[in-house]
Fold each of these.
Amino acid sequence: MNDYVIPEKLRVVGTTPIRPDGHDKVTGRAKFGDDFHLPGMLHGKVLRSPHAHARIKSIDTSHAEAFPGVHAVVTAADFPKISSNVIDAGEAGQIDMQDVADNCIARAKVFYDGHAVAAVAADNAHIAEEAANLIQVDYELLDPVMDVRSAMADNAPVLHDDFLPGAFLAPTEKALPNASKLELSMGDITNGFDEADIVIEREFTTETVHQGYIETHIVTAQWGANGMVTVWTTTQGQFAIRDQLALVLELPMSAIIVIPLEIGGGFGGKDSIYIDPLAVVLSKQSGRPVKMVMNRAETLRATGPSSGTYIKARLGVKTDGTLVAAEFHGAYEAGAYSGGPVAPGVSTALTRYNIPNIKIEGYDVLVNKPKVKPYRAPGATPSNFAVETMMDELCRELKLDPVEFRLRNALTTGDRLVLGFPCPEIGGVEILKAVQKHAHYQSDIGGPHRGRGLAYGFWFGAGLPSSADLMVNSDGTVQLCSGSPDMSGTRITLAMQAAEALGIEPGDIFPSVGDTASVGYSFQTVASRTTFATGIAVYQAAQDILAQMAERAALIWQIATDNVLIDCGRFLNKANIQQCFTFKELAGKLDGTGGPIAARALASPEGVGFQITAHLVDLAVDPETGKIDILRYTAFQDAGKAVHPDFVEGQIQGGTVQGIGWALNEEYFYDEAGHLKNTSLLDYRMPTILDVPNIEAVILETPNPGHPYGVRGVGEVPIVPPAAAIANALYDAAGIRMNTLPMTPAKILDKLNSVTH
Amino acid sequence: MPIVWIPHSMRELTDGTEKVAVDGANVREAIRALESLYPNLAGLLIQNDQLGKGIAVAVDSRIVRRGLYEPLRSDSEIHFIPALGAG
């Protein structure tokens, strides 16, 4: 695949037009999941397991079925046993659909507190909830296993008797009761450490965290009289929901239409089915549309958080500051079913440094918690926390400036990644030099108990399939429909790319998100891919539109199409440049020259631009309470080309705030029996506007040659370095090294006291 | 000839060899050529006539969508990597 020739000057890309969906969203007119209603609609509620690990001996639904106002009750017995259980999700790997189905409604065992066991549809949600509580389930309790090290122990309770642990590309047998293993390496790790003058080895733990999207999971399903199923839901991927429903319910994909509503946050957590198949089957049984709304407690207990981890790492460096060896062992919670973020987590642990000798071991570990799902750069925050705090320790040991140290070891274009292949264009050195020059880095920290920390972060991103349709209206405006739900202003970033390519204004383009019956297949809005990958689909469709319009101009002028010059929204006769149509003028002539023009493009781009960032933070720690106040925060990030710089800034700020929450407050609290104890946002403490200062975003642009305008994804990497940057600043402020997340005031105070006494 | 880089965990099957030059117009043919040298390798890479579970392939520094059917140049580098996923 050839690289694009990126124009030196761009007319629309890089500007900041107002997003077309913004007004409706801030005035409450936009339709989110809970805004959707149908006549005759029933309301569904789920009975969830109160146990973390138990065998289901029997379920008696008779009392619920007899309850006035109840129209349907379902258990796993109402769902098919799946015949084709593994599907390919492209670069994202493969998904075991029987696991997905069992996660939606437990079949023989419950694997976590909150696991769905049965569901009820009734006239209203209160009746449904009351009836669900009348369902009697007889459980045989089993010992739960709640953390990765316990789950990997020889005598650990086994979650799945039929679990076949994989080891990435290795001919190994079952070595651990609940874990699969991944190994990567380059160079010679033994020789590498032999070359090192200083070697440090540290251990870290991080806790389970949730994406914390404000809108919970909400779905309305209608089983039509003709057997067609229609689903209205809030999701990162309407096609993913359709395909998963089809596989779990053994229906043709073409018999299901999924209509995406506006989405109130997802961050990786809304690309899978949970209540969706329950609503569909309840609708089938009741003959009425069924709406289901997960409350906050259900969302925290039974959707897909991100992994808690145990990490052990060893770094070797020469006295001149050259890194020569690194060993990284990371065990990531998978939750109740295998398939956590271990691969991206460990693959990004060291990728931003050029270290010749690396050995990596990753473990995907089953525990009695909900099946984890991606969360913004999945797996990378814990591994970055470990490695970047160790890098800071080495800088101090060697008395080297932290930016100079990282510059000395920075991964540059062409260096080999631990995955084996040479690194494509990357602007890491530029990022680090921008940190050095920035006023924040050169300023005095000032005051007692204050410190400054730096961390450097990396994320791969992804391509994957995207579709886009363009249709030219007779007034010269253009309809743009993509298959990518808009989570962060991508309607306008796609419209801007169409406008750039077509030579018209973004305000002349009306962007929308299509349902599964009206637009071509698109992978989910995940992996920082929409502005990049769907943008390429838009660009390709625009080129098709231009070519078709040039044909019409040629027809009118009775010349060969090759003789039509396309120049920034104008079509000119090369032989007589006095003959010229603007885009709008030519659009008005389409009807008389063959009819309307439309184009569809499906792209699966491979030229993914890696994401690289550095975060700099100043903080103050209260020695009496252990509370951290963040005083100043600057995030430096390479956007390739920032299509809409305001939205890039928003992504950087949003991801950073989530990283701050992960660093300081957020964690799942389970008791010994495996019950989740903090099931509200009062107790699951996310940062508020009072917890963070303005986050200054410094956007750099090292173009990605894999995109026609040089775009890289931007949404994920901002969550990667905050925890490490804060930990390093805390050391600078108070002389304590934290090896656990979150760094709560209680933990900090304990550490301060242990140092003091 | 295209060069296949052997993943760390498979090197016990190649006596520690890290890189192998093989003939092949696409990734599938390269794997088949590899199989003739190291008989147990292909079964780990190809399952049910597609790339094995959790495996992606990178050709010439790009993680490719066509998988086994990705065409190779005479100087191509092929790497088998874990599928990465994202949020």
Amino acid sequence: MSQLAIASGAMRNRPALRRRRAKSGVYTGLLIAALLVAVGALAWVLVYVGVEGFSAISVNFLTHNPPGDPAAAGGGFFNGIIGSLIVVGIAAGIAIPLGIGAAVYLVEYGKGSAPGAIRFVNDVLIGIPTIVTGAFVYAIWVTHFGFSGFAGSLALAIVMLPLVTRTTEEMLRLVPNDLREGSLALGATRSQTVLRICLPTALPGIITGAMLAVARAMGETAPLLLTALGNELFTEFNPGRRMETLSLQIFTNAFTGFKEAQSRAWAGALTLIAIVLILTAAARFFGRRVRTAGP
Amino acid sequence: MPPPADAGGGIAVMRPGVSRVSLRRQRRRWGDTVFGSAVALTGGLVLVVIVGMVVFLVLQGLPAMQHYGFFSFITAGRWAPSEADPTLTHPNPYGILQFMYGMLITSLIGMIIAVPLAIGAALVITEIAPRRLQRPLSSLVDLLAAVPSVVYGFWGIFALIPAIRPIVDFLTSTLGTVPVIGVVFGGPFFGVSYFTAGLVLAIMILPIIAAVWREVFRSTPRNEKEAAFALGATRWEMIRIAVMPRARSGIVGASLIGLGRALGETIAVTMVIGNAVLHINPSVFSQGATMSSVIANEFTEATEPFHLSALFVVGFWLLVVALIVNVVARTVVRRGVAL
């Protein structure tokens, strides 16, 4: 703490104090500037997508498929929106129960060094590039059954699984031990305690985590290129076949070089951002309720 | 609350008809065991997935690895699928050094820009902003992470590139003409480039790094901050002597988590880097490719001999790099703060 001693010694020296205050002011200003740049970048992206998107979006866009000729005006990404909902829906159906199960194991059942190791691997899995996840699903699924919406769901489920596990685990840890002990003391088994006491108590937080994971999956594109592949022009409800998603359509239409296709892609980008932001905001709303309801 | 039926079961033990009750208890125990085993299986799933990734990427890459040799991919820097000839094993037309270079240089540019900005943002949110602004400001920075990758790429092409073009043109005509370092800053600039990809990456990893740092800075004991102020420290001095020393390992860990994300980011990079796969381009303003971008760009059109298999080799090495960076990052972060 020698710096402190120097600092307090300098107090008697007025010009030095002024210099230190000025230095502090300059650094504080730089830090605030850094925050403003970050917020400015966000504003730039959102405003740009908003302006381009609102000038292209319409009811027609949300209810029609793209025209056969990419240079033609009109049409929309109905097939991609449906595809996104189906692919992400199946992925959520796979990943959320498995993630909650894994978190229950980590918090309520795991003994010895296994939970620590699994938690570590789970964190590492969060950082694995999603294109690698896509390649993995291609290897285990697409090589046998072909490109399909379900293959895309598998890839997104692998992206979501560690996210759901981690947030659920954190929420289960917040459940007070008194509740568990009370339940066990009344004669309930461990599984009953988990299913009727721990999970319901942690539910709002679990929902928050699940929604954030769904929001993340909605925007994923890379793994879907290798699995769902897209089908361009028609609506597909069967997840056993190739499927278009909103993210894939934005990606392919952005590069066509046709103004009309690009404006459809902007409308798609606005739709996607709106879905993701609504999910994120709703998740935060649930998250706030957790914190105020907590002990 | 446990259901009344079960509570009654516990009391019934005292009464006659014990065998029936104990049977029910056994069934309950059995159900408990099944539930316990089931969650243990789901817990082990992440291990299966990680191991499965390594195994299956190697299996898919094996034909190319056997044909050209395991290490020939990372010692060659020329990717020319059209030159692939199944009868030749040398030279390897699927060299991936230029993708490693592209991955590292774009991530480096992203880190150089994002790290100081994220430090500033995190410090302002935890130490400088008024208490009632802290939550909204955190949410705003977090929103940057919520914007999908494909949207960043699209925005990069149409908004970012026109905006940086005058600056880059100026740099290529000044720095680009200086001997020696001019090679790194040389033109011509076509918009899509390593530099553009690095900028987009900076925006994408900023919120991730800032989020970890916020937690790190928040863990500074309040009394140490107050002690610094009580001794007459200015705000900056308080940050330097009370907040920063404790945050050091967290700072490294958070940067590494951001780096891990930058190395593997795919779609946004693919959209703004130009996908020039042939060889390393020395200028940061020239077009290139990264490990992930070449997979995304060529995967569904891989028709040359060993082409698809070679892309799996790229995926394998990308996975190796990502595993190393993430394992180190998580180890450092875990030691520093409980995250």
